[in-house]
Design a protein that fits this description.
991 residues, 41 strands, Jelly Rolls, alpha+beta, single chain, Xaa-Pro-like_dom, Rossmann fold, 7-stranded antiparallel β-sheet, 22 helices, 25% strand
């Protein structure tokens, strides 16, 4: 007997089961086929070393250290400084990994951090760099360390961020350093924190991520504030945080909880490393402990003097007075004076890179809004010019994307072993970059490595720049007073959430209307792999006064999907200042270097250049200003491209099995998602002319709350529909679902036959006004509307600004500045803004809020005139009398459900109450009471109200005439408010 064919649902279920088993088997292969080996033992030894507090000073400060000794020695050494805000425990995991590779590692807490004494001087050559040289002296005295000569250890320096800069500075000042591997660090701290990405000339460098490094930049306020806060706690070290006197024996005291910020147990360093005594990768920092410290306690250092509390009023915390003054200088007005610039230059690796000739591995993150690829690019050029051999790695990470993972740390260890011993093989090519794809496995993006022939521009040759044509005319942009509201491109320290989650991509992106100009390319016909820093030539002119500090602007490059959604790679922004922009409107041409990125722009995607006036992460001038921005000439966007070959990694069978399972699962999910998208955007031709149909709409939330329940109604063309209901009726939830802001639990909404879903194209046919609109007060009403429309990216000729203003009835007031408007005029301007493009469906939430009776009357006329054009208006309001006079139809909701729907007259006229205007009210009341069935007769001036209980009004009028009463007017008594209260109950007042 043959088996029956399985149903489509059963076939789908079997396919899912088979794929699930495949994925489990592939994942299991990772366990079955990868051997586990125990790492070689590592001995640790903790000690407090004393170093001079300052050059030539007899005072001493304590430096807290841990020495990691491999199984075999003597061996080459690695000095391992930590990132800003951390301490020696922050790098414990990496130190142990290097020691397991056979190298002696000295990790330590820099002055001002952890339990080391002194104050933070930002890697000053006379302080932190001099301390590191003393640590090299200590290494040369250790019998476990291999020596190149007396007092000269075989040593490399590696570290990330703050520690990476120390590696560069030490290599440029101490000839005993044999190799360095700095990661995610800076070349010029002034340019990193106060960048200027624009130059009136051309960028001379031929490397792929060269920055303009122009003077007079824009203060990176958010990042600088994070770091200053990390160092603002009470200082460590000796009494009051000052130096230890010579010959004073340090007391065995626990200083780990007296740092007031970074370095405390459980805190995190700003560069992403842990500072709680554990390694950033989760490895333990155990091992044998010598030198008097207690095993397993990160709060003991083996003998540093206790810190004395400082006055809470001291804003400098653990910083030196010089650093504190510099921060106060630039944080006050966003502009650095000469003394601050000199300090930042002094503590920057750029001051010594001309003297670095040792082999250098530069590891820089592609997701780093603090120290971008341009910083490593500059270091590579400078060290190469000095004669040093330079290898470069760009990886998917950084201060916004995470520290190097195990594989990259292993590559760094291989490189150090090769340079220090000469026996290990070189780990690969001199330039490798990583490309993050859209495929995700267990929430982690797919990443592929590409090996290039070399870093372009270091040893001859140039970077290949592809030209991408941009479209867009000259555009007007405004810097609002105080720089608020400001554009949001990302949130320093949280951008990693965006790069690691598709759901959060674009969450932090916001370009306020009127503040940015947009220039967009045509869709790509083939994939374009952007590898470095694109460049563009802009023409900027002032349309009025310019702030004394110059024009401040921000440029960023979006990847635009075919559906119009945008992604800002790495949340990166190029800030630039034009210090001498003429006030007479004469344009200035500048070359702007955009942030360095690695981004595959797929076929069908476009690139969009956005030039704005604000960014919440930067300091901008307080003065209002207006600029015009256009593309200079027809050069377009110059995009760097670095050819390469996929990095070879052999044939890892477990990983391939896992990838195969993931690909199969992705194929299934993609198919289901495509089916859902097709269903979501299917069109009902029979409803193509109907503005709005809601069927069985339900929205439920966790916890059993149902905001909207089985709601159904229909709106026809030309209607003005009033949406009524008490607090909690579900009106706002319904409007949010209509606008595609939230997704229904069940049911559907169709606008002109198209099913509404988040991002549905039909939403462009809806205009909306919710509560209030943010206008720029120093511009006219007409200018505000033009800027708002320009921000939508749609053609100017489709705005219909004149028609919207005529309907709004603002008259000549549209040419006045908005700050002179009354509340009613602002509301009408907001309605005009919602009417731009003359949307076929206009959705308004409380449009008469804050208006007096004359203004409400004017607003009522505005809505009637708009509906008279054949379009449809949906109004949600708590003013029942206004809905009655404005709307043609009403929908009444209560507790999420529909209780009534229909024409206003039908709902108002329901029941049998009537009102009569008469000349003799008392006689009329007596006559009506005498009619059988009539009840509840009341006199109100010349009006007599009565419940006729089914008696025709004509019969009641006849009875009044027979009684000698002159009837001037007769009609239904019921008002919308009466009907509303009867429908929802006396307790259900309007919102």
């Amino acid at each position: 007997m043959p088996f029956p064919a399985p149903s489509p649902r059963a076939r789908r279920g079997r396919l899912v089961a088979v794929l699930a088993v495949a994925v489990l088997l592939a994942g299991g292969g990772l366990v079955w086929l990868v051997p586990e080996t125990d790492p070689p033992p590592v001995r640790t030894e903790e000690a407090i070393l004393e170093v001079p507090a300052a050059p030539g000073s007899a005072e001493r400060i304590a430096i807290d250290t841990t020495l990691y000794v491999p199984q075999r020695s003597p061996a080459p050494a690695v000095l391992l400084p930590h990132g800003f805000g951390g301490d020696k425990n922050s790098v414990a995991g990496q130190a142990r990994e290097l020691a397991e590779r056979g190298m002696v590692v000295l990790a330590y807490s820099a002055r001002g951090f952890g339990r080391s004494g002194g104050r933070i001087a930002l890697n000053d050559p006379d302080h932190e760099v001099a301390d590191a040289s003393r640590l090299l002296d200590h290494l040369s005295s250790r019998p476990e360390v291999l020596l190149d000569g007396a007092g000269d250890p075989r040593v490399a320096v590696t570290g990330a961020s703050y520690g990476g800069a120390l590696a560069l500075l030490l290599a440029g000042t101490d000839r005993r350093v044999d190799a360095i591997a700095p990661a995610i660090t800076y070349n010029d701290l002034g340019e990193a924190l106060i960048p200027n990405a624009a130059t009136t000339g051309e960028v001379a460098a031929d490397t792929p991520a060269a920055g303009a490094f122009a003077p007079g930049g824009v203060f990176k306020r958010s990042w600088a504030g994070i770091f200053f806060s990390a160092g603002s706690g009470a200082p460590a070290g000796g009494p009051g945080g000052e130096a230890l006197e010579p010959g004073v024996e340090p007391d065995d005291q626990d200083l780990g909880t007296d740092q007031g910020g970074a370095g405390q147990p459980g805190s995190a360093a700003p560069d992403g490393s842990a500072s709680d005594g554990s390694a950033s990768d989760g490895s333990a920092s155990g091992g044998s402990v010598e030198g008097g410290a207690e095993p397993g306690r990160s709060g003991r250092s083996g003998g540093a003097a206790p810190a004395r509390p400082r006055s809470a009023a001291d804003p400098c915390g653990r910083f030196t007075a010089e650093v504190c003054r510099a921060y106060a200088d630039v944080a006050t007005d966003g502009v650095a004076d000469e003394r601050t610039r000199d300090l930042l230059r002094r503590v920057s690796p750029a001051s010594v890179t001309g003297d670095i000739t040792v082999p250098t591995l530069l590891v820089q993150g592609e997701n780093d809004t603090l120290f971008g690829l341009d910083q490593a690019d500059a270091t590579a050029r400078q060290v190469s010019a000095a004669g040093g051999e330079v290898d470069v790695v760009w990886y998917v990470g950084g201060h916004d994307g995470g520290s190097p993972g195990p594989q990259l740390r292993g590559r760094i260890a291989d490189w150090l072993a090769h340079r220090l011993t000469g026996e290990a093989e070189h780990p690969g090519t001199s330039f490798r970059y990583e490309v993050q794809g859209s495929l995700r496995a267990n929430g982690t993006p797919s990443v592929r490595a590409v090996d290039a022939a070399g870093y372009p521009g270091l040893h001859g040759g140039t970077t290949d720049f592809r030209t991408v044509a941009l479209g867009g005319e000259q555009q007007l942009i405004v810097h609002p007073p105080g720089g608020s509201p400001a554009a949001v491109s990302g949130i320093p320290g949280l951008n990693r959430l965006v790069t690691s989650s598709n759901r959060l991509a674009g969450l932090f992106g916001f370009d306020p209307p009127g503040q940015s100009a947009r220039f967009t390319s045509t869709p790509m016909d083939t994939q374009l792999l952007v590898t470095g820093a694109p460049r563009v030539r802009l023409r900027v002119a002032a349309e009025g006064p310019v702030p004394p500090s110059g024009a401040v602007l921000f440029a960023k490059l979006y990847d635009v999907n075919p559906d119009g959604t945008r992604t800002l790679p790495g949340s990166a922004v190029a800030a630039f200042r034009i210090p001498s922009l003429p006030t007479d409107g004469t344009p200035v041409e500048v070359t702007v270097t955009l942030p360095g990125i690695v981004r595959p722009v797929e076929t069908g995607h476009a690139l969009q250049l956005v030039v704005g006036t604000t960014d919440q992460s930067y300091a901008t001038p307080p003065e209002a200003a207006t600029y015009s921005v256009s593309l200079a000439g027809d050069a377009g966007l110059a995009v760097p491209v670095v050819p390469g070959t996929p990095a070879s990694s052999g044939w890892p069978l477990p990983q391939l099995l896992g990838v195969a399972g993931v690909l199969a699962a992705v194929a299934l999910v993609t198919g289901v998602a495509a089916l859902r998208r097709r269903r979501a955007h299917e069109v009902d031709p029979g409803l193509a002319d109907v503005p709005l149909v809601i069927e069985s709409l339900t929205k439920s939330y966790p916890g059993g709350l149902t905001a909207v329940k089985d709601l159904s109604f229909r709106v026809e063309p030309g209607q003005v529909l009033g949406l009524l209901g008490p607090n909690g009726a579900g009106k706002t939830t319904t409007l949010r679902m209509l606008m595609g802001l939230i997704t229904p639990s069940s049911g559907e909404i169709r606008v002109f036959g198209h099913k509404v879903a988040p991002g549905a194209p039909v939403l462009s046919r809806i205009g909306s006004f919710v509560e209030g609109a943010g206008f720029l007060p120093h511009l006219s009403g007409a200018a505000n509307l033009r800027l708002y429309w320009a921000a939508t990216g749609r053609p100017a000729e489709k705005a219909h600004i004149a028609e919207a203003l005529e309907i709004a009835g603002l008259g000549d007031a549209v040419h006045r500045k908005v700050r002179t408007y009354s509340q009613g005029m602002r509301q009408r301007l907001a309605i005009a803004q919602a009417m731009l493009g003359l949307p076929e469906l206009l959705v308004l939430d409380e449009p008469t809020n804050g208006l007096d009776p004359p203004q409400i009357h004017q607003m009522r006329e505005v809505l009637r005139r708009y509906a008279a054009t054949g379009r449809t208006v949906l109004v949600s309001s708590h003013l029942l009398a206004e809905v009655e006079q404005t709307s043609t139809h009403v929908v009444v909701m209560h507790r999420g459900a529909l209780v009534a729907a229909g024409e206003v007259g039908d709902i108002v006229g329901a029941g049998g109450e009537a009102t009569f205007r008469v000349d003799r009210p008392e006689a009329a009341a007596e006559a009506l009471r005498a009619v059988g069935g009539v009840s509840e007769v009341d006199v109100d001036g010349t009006l007599v109200h009565a419940d006729l209980d089914g008696l025709p009004r004509s019969a009641a009028v006849a009875a009044l005439v027979r009684a000698g009463v002159s009837v001037e007017q007769a009609g239904p008594r019921r008002r919308l408010e009466d009907a509303f209260l009867q429908l929802v109950g006396e307790g259900g007042s309007g919102e």
